[in-house]
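On to my pick:
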Amino acid sequence: MRIDIVTLFPEFFTSPLQCSLLGRAIAGGVCSVAITNPRDFAADRYRTVDDTPYGGGAGMVLKPEPLFAAVESLPVLEPRAVILLTPQGKSLKQPLLRSLAADYAQLVLLCGHYEGVDERVRVHLATHEISLGDFVLTGGEIPALALIDGVVRLLPGTVGNRASLASESFEDNLLEYPQYTRPANFRGWQVPEVLLSGHHAQIARWRREQQLARTHERRPDLQPPEA
């Protein structure tokens, strides 16, 4: 997979893209990530990328010309999604991450700023609009990084034991079961005996019960399957 980030702040991504599983996946060729700055496509010597909104109002709006030119400069791998990160978009959830990881060869991420982008970018350039949730950030870089991390970890070659992905939160509309490791007794808090039993069927049953109970308590909106 190829991931292109269109951002006014390329330096935002320098460290995160080099760290942990994400950094190793990129270094190992699981995916490639390229960053393009719309300022490089501005039409004037001041590299202007924003202007005041028609009709008045506070703040500045990102101009369409630099964003269109930045995206049009990129190589095209089909199928491709051009994603505008915006609070008005579809909420980023695990099924959407799975779809992006499985269905596309290229993701182009448009990071907005200021009061947003010219509407013609949303209508005629973006194919998807995605949001982290019902809140507003200073720009689209944090949502873009979250999306990249969520997608890349699903690509073959990123996670060594892919079986671990199957039992995570939001798979099968369930939260993950409690996890424990050594020591078995820490400050008087004991690991549940069933996990020490070595009885795999009982452990699997306990974990399933914990998933159902935890999901019912914390996220009843997920509507998990019956036990």
Remarks:
- The CA atoms of residues 57 and 155 lie 43 Å apart.
- The chain has a mean pLDDT of 93.
- Residues 163-222 form a domain with the Trp Operon Repressor; Chain A fold (CATH 1.10.1270.20).
- The first helix runs from residue 20 to 27.
